[in-house]
Amino acid sequence: ENVWEGDVLSNRIRGENCYDMGKLRMILARLNRRPDEVIFSSDHVSDLPVLDWADVPIAANPSEALRTVATLRGWRVVDWA
After folding, report:
1. What's the half-sphere exposure (Cβ side, CA atoms, 13 Å) at 32?
2. What is the pLDDT of residue 37?
């Protein structure tokens, strides 16, 4: 959530940024229980905590770093035009 400063919307955010472990913490905070199956796709290596947590991690149009990790871990890699 961005922060308003008077009538100007700032580039700051309220709370933790939503990447890396912060994204996983935000997801977990919103859940009452873990879903039976978690399918998660991302294009960036900063989402590794959520991809590791997911039952079905998918690297979609991945950065080179994520492509490398996904290949090493045997995750599905998809490239969409």
Report:
1. 0
2. 97
Other beta carbons less than 10 A from residue 59's beta carbon: 25
In this predicted model, what pLDDT tens digit does every residue of 1-21 receive, in sequence order? Answer: 667 788 888 777 777 778 899
Which CA distances in Å does 37 have to 49, 63, 69, 76? Answer: 16, 25, 22, 16
Cα separation, 58 vs 80, whole angstroms: 12
Nearest-5° Cα angle at 27, 25 to 31: 115
Residues with Cβ within 8 Å of 7's Cβ and at least 6 positions away in sequence, in order, are none
Alpha carbon separation from 74 to 33, 34, 41, 47 (Å, rounded): 27, 23, 14, 16
Token pair, residue 11, equals 């580039």
For residue 75 the two structure tokens come to 């995750």
